[in-house]
Amino acid sequence: MLQKIRDNSQGWIAKTIITVIVALMALTGFDAIFRATSHSQDAAKVNGDEITQADLSQAVEMQRRQLMQQLGKDFDPALLDERMLRESALKGLIDRKLLLQGAQDGKFSFSEAALDQEILQTPVFQVDGKFNADRFDQVIRQMGFSRLQFRQMLTDEMLVAQVRAGLIGTGLVTDADILAYARLDKQTRDFASVSYKADATAQKVSDDEVKAYYDEHAKEFMSPDQVLIDYVELKKSAFFDQAKVSDDDLQAQYQKEIANLAEQRRAAHILIEVNDKVSDAEAKGKIEAIAARLAKGEDFATVAKQASQDPGSANNGGDLGYAGKGVYDPAFEDALYGLKQGEVSQPVRSQYGWHLIKLLGVQAPKVPTLASLKDKIIRDLKSQQVEQLYVDAAKKLEDSAFEASDLAQPAQELGLKVQTSQPFGRDGGSEGVTANRQVIQAAFSPEVLDEGANSNAIELDPDTTVVVRVKEHRKPEQLSQEAVSEPIRKELARQKASDAAKAKGDALIAGLRDGKVALAASQDGQAWKVSEAVTRSQEGIDPKVLQQVFRMPKPEGGKPTFAGVTLQDGSYVVVRLNGVNEGPAPSEEEKGQYRQFLSSRNGQQDFASYRKWLESKAKIERY
To answer: Looking at domain 253-363, which of 3.40.50.300, 3.30.1330.30, 3.30.428.10, 3.10.50.40 is its CATH number?
Structure first.
């Protein structure tokens, strides 16, 4: 299946990536130079298998895109720490490489037909519920893959998934495990509580206490390390008016658009694979026997479910959905396009084995007029020109900024304006370029901050590139005691209030435990707040209180147990555990649910242990 996707890797233009060339300005010894040049293209090696810098960059970009997709409008690029993103991506690549090596050692595999079906049935590659080759190309280009690269990536992911499923699906759970977990899960507790509020307004803080705190924590009271930056900003949208589309270009693109509109055919097939265990003659004999069954009137879909060895389509009665030319193996395609609707082919040999093919339906293309496509074609053609103009300008900006001693020259060469930001610290500003994590990292980098260099070109988003330069560095300075006395006073008052609340609560707990304080309906003028049959996930109770309740020992001899916990606002809660209630025995249905949950959890732990074992015996080199 999908022979064209496997073989047709020529002629596809890879997505242009602006690379940053870092010059070695100082020699640090022959060994350092040798290591830098030897591994300049590698990010890591795992048991001798390379993870290239290109692999790492692609993984970082995929992580960034996933975050953008998951968070949508709430995504804030400024929150992304590029260094942490790269570390996370590299760890993921190393883990993946280890698992792939484990899969290879374990002889895990699957057929090419299974890979084809995974692609054909992936919703994101479909238009109106049918696989669409143009949509496929568009999606994988956006991901930064060629066809062959994507197939290899998907192959690796399916192998890793096999290993994961093999371990997770075999987590051992005994009946005793289920009953023990059910007992804890169904257990409820009866408790009561009394709260002591932390009242900061009732606390007095002397000037001497403020001074002592200031002297002890003086290093904490510094003005922020801040910079003002000059920057030039290159926007892709600025090039749209420069793009021109001629009538000839318009007509040529229209012909390409309608040329891609081909007849779509809905095929179903039955596959008998030829492999190391089944010879060509044996497979052909099996498919001929199946053809004889169909000739006697058996239903094609029913026979496909029973006999087809294509795991992706067998359960669907062999249905492959609609697809156009250039998708299937040539021999398969020739046979399909020689059929009439409802007709079944003679046995057909492809590189996977022997097929019987049935034509389920034909869809004729609808050819739109030039007028209906004109706006779209012009927009697409201009977008292509704009993309190239923008890439060229961004490269020119980077080269010019690298050579220049300020931003005036790059700005003049590209017709840009030098802008100046508001002051911001290492946590960044609230908006604009100063809120971008890459800009913040560049502004506070040694090259830009200390050496006064222009930054590298920074891609804020796919449509915006900037170069920054530090205009002013406002170094941290010691703040006077007067400037910070008020927050210090508030903090000391808060601490005193919390300590006072805890002292009252601890005194009550001590008195109740040793009997010096009688247990009553109310303590210190407060009635106990009673909660009964509380579960571990009870709503309406502070999580810290709930956690404390289920940590406490079971009351013995009819006497409650006591404990205390400080809450986020500084208040202190005294907890009285009155009883522990065992839940009912789990039903058979609940046992099944517990078994599934525990098996999955144990399997996840086994999988994590397997990964750690692979890592422990591997030779991993990071560069």
So the answer is: 3.10.50.40
